[in-house]
Amino acid sequence: MVLRVLAATGVATSLFGSSAFGGSPAPPPPPPQEQVVIDSVAVNGTGCPEGTAAVAVSPDNTAFTVTYSNYLAQVGPGASPTDFRKNCQLTLLVHVPSGYTYAIVSADYRGFASLAPGASGTQRARYHFQGDPRTTTATHHFKGGFNGDWQTTDTAPAAALAFAPCGEERNLDITTELQVDRGTSSPGDTSFLEMDSTDGTVKTVYHLTLRHCP
Predict the structure, then answer these.
(1) Residue 159, SS3?
(2) In this structure, what DSSP letter does residue 160 have?
């Protein structure tokens, strides 16, 4: 599945945790007038079947948003043995204006959870520029006895951002995972964790920073 969109509408290390250029990056320049374009090279996974994930770039070029419509992990009556874990890998090619490069400065994840007492949930994200040996992993845990909206944020200090190589186009892989563990909860209890939206209001937002290439 290929999507092309134009601007219109835990603990983390490596990609968030070290600079590809070394030293402290300069303050980000004002967003350029040209548009950021994202080619979605591939969207694969049990949490994002074809046609259930949409990518859009913010009008000011400072973020892109992924909206899911079928991303849910669950255990309990009616759930299949594989439903306890769902994942989605986004392979993106981010085209920035000439003379600029970019880094992901933070990522916001939102959803809804219903976890019975004794159960638990996990939300995990991995970030990787293809051709770079570093991979960032950020993990967040949720305890049972919870029913409501959730939000997590993966972030990096400005001095530790890893920017895409200047003058090169490399795919950015973002793999997310939701997992629910029954734990000591009753076999008759249903527990679930979702990053899911039927009305377009639950979204994952990735915040970008742009800077001039040296």
Answers:
(1) helix
(2) G
The H or E element containing residue 111 is: strand 100-115
**Residue 158: what are its φ and ψ, rounded to 5°?**
-60, -35
pLDDT band of residue 182 (cuts 50, 70, 90) is: very high
Q: What angle do CA 138, 23, 209 make, to 5 degrees?
A: 55
**How deeply is 210 buried, as exposed, middle or buried, from its count of CB atoms within 10 A (0-12, 13-18, 19+)?**
buried
> How far is Cα 65 from Cα 56, in angstroms, rounded to an integer?
5
* Entry pTM: 0.78
pLDDT at residue 165 is higher than 50 = yes
Q: Which residues of 134-167 are buried (b: 16+ CB within 10 A; e: fewer)?
A: eebbbebebebebeeebebebebeeebbbbbeee
Q: What's the one-letter identity of residue 155? A: T
Q: Tell me the mean pLDDT in the region 20-38.
A: 56
Q: One-letter amino acid identity for 121?
A: G
Determine the Cα–Cα distance for residues 158 and 85; give it in Å rounded to an integer.
33
Tokens of 163: 């920017």
DSSP at 164? P
